[in-house]
Amino acid sequence: MAGLYFHIPFCKRACTYCDFHFSTTGEQEPLLAAMERELIARARELGDAPVSTIYFGGGTPSLLETERIASIMQLTRDLFRVQRDAEVTLEANPDDIAADRLEAWKAAGITRLSLGTQSFREDRLRWMGRAHDADQALRSIELIAKAGFASWTIDLIYGLPGMSITEWEEQLSIALDHGMPHLSAYCLTVEPRTALAHQVKKRIVAMPGDEAQSAQFDHLMVRMERAGLEHYEISNFGRPGHHARHNSSYWEGVSYLGIGPSAHSYDGLNRRWNVANNARYTKAVTGGEPYWEEERLTPAQRTNERLLTGLRTSKGVELAQLELDPLRLQPKAVERWTASGHLLQADGRLVLTKAGRHFADRIASDLFVDDDDR
Ligand code: SF4
């Protein structure tokens, strides 16, 4: 089994908090043609493995003409053994949603829509620099709920300056009232070199403290559980049958091909990443020059990646699947987090408790094994 990821690096405008690779200028078509060249050139890398998930991310894939998504899908089907029940996700922004476009995406083979809502409040959307307004956020969720996709999901952001539990509850209620089967909820973080980082540095914006963000995360967990959505990964909640298969395969170490500028690929041993620059990517692919770097991961790196991603999931990390044993190599850290009630060992797995979910990345890095090969 394998996955395919397409990075569509265009956005209408730059959201203040975003550090993904995207551009608000530049021609689309030469870059898309280069992505198709990359896809053709690398098709053999997956061998005969059936493709079970395809993901159009970005950037903003919904910016493309629907026919362009359809033609990339057709080329993918021509080149790979795409499973009949493959999960095919498209990230879309509310300002790109219309009934006829939803139908066209379905006809192209998209089975799952991921809507970048972030908030249903006008003041918050403006503050984040989003291209859509609150009406579009509401209207798009109504259209998607009726469109008949196998699944759909929305993104919401919490931990915003001045956000109260009441505001957060309002946001979650709007989504749940529309029958949302899956939610990705992200706590606002200040990433270097973003407009938000600049605003924080200049004291134009004061970020909330850990306590407020932590209380909103607790509220999220309780609210989703009450609504019947399983907390299967730190930032992801889904009704049974609606867990994201593409993202789950990243967390389980499945091979995937990443196509487009800044896209990453993994074949079980090597990690490869494409240049994060649209012009350089297009020129290099078109000219037959290298456009990527890669490294072979050491056993310690592979173990630590599995710890970092696996501990974020409700299934935790299966110890037998790790090449190196953190119980033997980091016994004190395991003991400390277990004694404090943040970590459990059960059925050969290491799993975070509810309290531990607040510190997932910190616990994982404490458990990291030393890399003697570097
Ligand atoms: S639309 Fe998405 S990818 Fe584009 S700038 Fe905003 S958050 Fe980043």
Compact description:
This protein has 374 residues and is an alpha/beta fold. It has 14 helices and 15 strands.
Salient structural properties:
374 residues; alpha/beta; TIM Barrel; 2 domains; nine-stranded mixed beta sheet; three-stranded antiparallel beta sheet; globular; binds iron/sulfur cluster
Describe the overall structure:
The protein has 14 helices and 15 strands. With 374 residues, the chain is an alpha/beta fold. The protein folds into two domains: 2-250, TIM Barrel; 299-367, Arc Repressor Mutant, subunit A, CATH 1.10.10. A nine-stranded mixed beta sheet has the order 7-8-6-5-4-3-2-1-9, with helices on both faces. β10 and β11 form a beta hairpin. α1 (28-42) crosses α10 (278-287), α2 (66-79) packs parallel to α3 (99-108) and α6 (165-177) runs parallel beside α8 (210-227). The radius of gyration is 21 Å and the shape is globular. The model has no long low-confidence stretch (mean pLDDT 96). The protein binds iron/sulfur cluster (SF4). Residues 11, 14-15, 18, 20, 22, 58-60, 93, 116 line the site of iron/sulfur cluster. Iron/sulfur cluster binds at residues 11, 14-15, 18, 20, 22, 58-60, 93, 116.
